[in-house]
Design brief:
alpha/beta; Rossmann fold; 7-stranded mixed beta sheet; two-stranded antiparallel ribbon; 7 helices; 9 strands
Length: 235
């Protein structure tokens, strides 16, 4: 991913880190269910770990956990929580999701929650998914989620894009502002259709085990898409 995009993303999430932590404390049901299926001997990574709400659950259950995030401020928040809970089996890494500083075939499980859609450029997103394929063990499993393009909040916006002259942005790209705690910070998102999500997983060589949509606020379409994937044979 180009350095300017990395720097912009890092600055964005550093600014909103404290506000994010205050408002994002509750683990997702889908993640809890995935984590509860993991073994005590598993080596796990939480990619885009944010404030550690899912990472800490992994650390309480599994042997070793790595948390990676682009925001050093979010990592500091997570580190404080880890220290408070006396968790000695966690390593935190500052890095980006397109070039993961993790070894081949090293992980039993991966959480990659609500972060893929913050990567600009389809090639970069697919490269990130290829990295998932690279670092999973042969029998490893990953839970991946993205925001839906057609959720109620953004459906009208993207329908209008059909009739607007295309610029350099990909269809699905949008700036979503963080406006809590008197902030007004744009965050890059690429919102997915379900078909595009599945296509990108396949393009990366991952073996799709299950995919589904969930409604949180929307009444018509899914707000999020989830997928459980295994390491593909093509790696």
């Amino acid at each position: 991913m180009p350095n300017n995009n990395i720097k912009t993303a890092e600055k964005t999430w550093d600014i909103i880190a404290k506000s994010f932590d205050i408002t994002r404390r509750k683990p997702w049901k889908q993640c809890i269910e995935f984590i509860n299926e993991l073994s005590e001997s598993d080596i796990v990574a939480d990619l885009g770990c944010g404030n550690g709400r899912h990472l800490i659950l992994c650390a309480k259950r599994c042997k070793n956990v790595t948390g990676l995030d682009i925001s050093q401020n979010l990592l500091r928040i997570t580190q404080k929580k880890i220290k408070e809970k006396s968790l000695g089996n966690v390593v935190l890494v500052h890095g980006n999701l397109v070039e993961l500083p993790l070894k081949d075939n090293s992980l039993d499980a991966i959480l990659y929650i609500a972060s893929l859609h913050n990567i600009k450029g389809r090639e970069n997103r697919i490269n990130s998914l290829k990295e998932i394929n690279r670092i999973l063990k042969n029998d490893g499993t990953a839970l991946i989620s993205v925001w839906s393009r057609w959720q109620d909040r953004y459906r009208k916006y993207f329908l209008k894009q059909f009739f607007i002259k295309k610029d350099q942005n990909e269809f699905g790209d949008i700036d979503i502002y963080w406006r809590q705690h008197n902030l007004n910070i744009p965050r890059f998102y690429h919102l997915y259709s379900k078909r595009e999500f599945v296509n990108d997983l396949n393009q990366a060589g991952l073996k799709l085990e299950k995919n589904w949509g969930t409604k949180l606020h929307s009444k018509i379409s899914a707000d999020n898409y989830f997928a459980i994937v295994k390491k593909g044979n093509c790696y």
